[in-house]
Amino acid sequence: MKILIINGPNLNLLGVREKSIYGSENFESYFEQLKKEFPAIEFTYYQSNVEGELINKLHENGFSLDGIIINAGAYTHTSVAIRDAIAGINSPVIEVHISNTLTREDFRHKSIIGPVCKGCIMGFGLQSYRLAVQSFVN
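^ that's the sequence the OP posted. Answer follows.
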């Protein structure tokens, strides 16, 4: 099984920014834990702060993978282009969020990408990614 994890803008600052919301662990450390927990899965990880680069990565991989996990960050609420990229590929996509976006500012309550994703997992910290992986395994 092959799974790509895509993180969008500002997620390169995990472990540094707003620790009360996002925790103190950086994603690279957590990614190593995921790989150990699921040794049969071939993981790839990609992060960009640039919308077009995220779209390119979806296009490049969205016809050959067993699954894609995306935390589009703020683009979740604003990017019709990322939504269209997800809708245009064959690989199933799960939207994840570290925080429960429904308990935050009103503008974070609506996901533009959610309706074209297989599902959405939010509010479980970095474990949201593990839950998404488990949904692909099951």
